[in-house]
Write a structure and sequence with these properties.
Number of helices: 13
CATH topology of the largest domain: MetI-like fold
Largest sheet: none
Distance between the termini: 67 Å
Helix content: over 70%
CATH superfamily of the largest domain: MetI-like
Number of domains: 2
CATH architecture of the largest domain: Orthogonal Bundle
Length: 303
Amino acid sequence: MTTRRHRGLSLGKREALTGYALLLPYTLGFVVFVLLPCIVAVLTSFSNMDFITIKVSKLKFVGFSNYATVLHDMEFWRAFGRSMYYMALYVPLSLALGLLIAYFLNSKIRLRKTIRTLIFLPYVSNIVAIALVWRTLYDYQDGFINSTLRGAGVQNPPMWLLGNSGIVLFSIALVAVWQGLGMTFIVYLAALQEIPAELYEAAAIDGANERQRFMYVTMPALAPTTFFLFITAMITSMQNYAIIQTFTKGGPGKASTTMSLYTYQQSFFYNNMKVGTTQSVLMLVIPLALTAIYWRGQRTWQS
């Protein structure tokens, strides 16, 4: 009886081809919608492009003149300050609340799965719909929040979306934190469940109380997760266009005009594409610089 050799691909090669086939749609999407636009934006920031429809033959290399224009624009620095203020609100609130809720729900409590689902639900909901609902709740005259405050005896409740830059951005940041809390909480919860129980048992035998176990066992074990969430929260806080545009369109005045909105206005409202793309490149550089600083600080702290 003769044995026929299998002339097809080996199992390893078939698995590799299947993996590449599954990666192909995402890779194509990344190249077309992320990588190529980034390359075009960088090239445009060194050109004289004012309009999207400008002919290629009229494009000229202008060096760093666009960057000089942006860096001498005081309105850009005001938008930058608002973005940093928004980030300073969003990042610590997101991490602290996510860790607190994950730590609480990691214990055995009733309706734990239901609570997890309710917390995660806003994360998968449409951000524009969420902003529209919260804008109604924030309404100064008839909104639920101010009506409740007046019923509790507060004579002059805050003008959540009509006040100064501080109160407006604070109001928007609260909604953004609430909307993104599901992701932060889920990642922290998964990391908490990976911490070996033996570490807590050893700490308890050594006499450590609940607070000490949290500070000297939980927090160091969560350091890599915190670093990951810090970076993602920082990037998310810079990508705040949709929620601010839906809430206030950058107003009142320019009280909530952050870098993302100002970049959009320069590019598509004032048709100043070269300045808009230059600002978008700087928006990429700023998180990279902050990430490098945080990475270096984390390595120093761990050593």
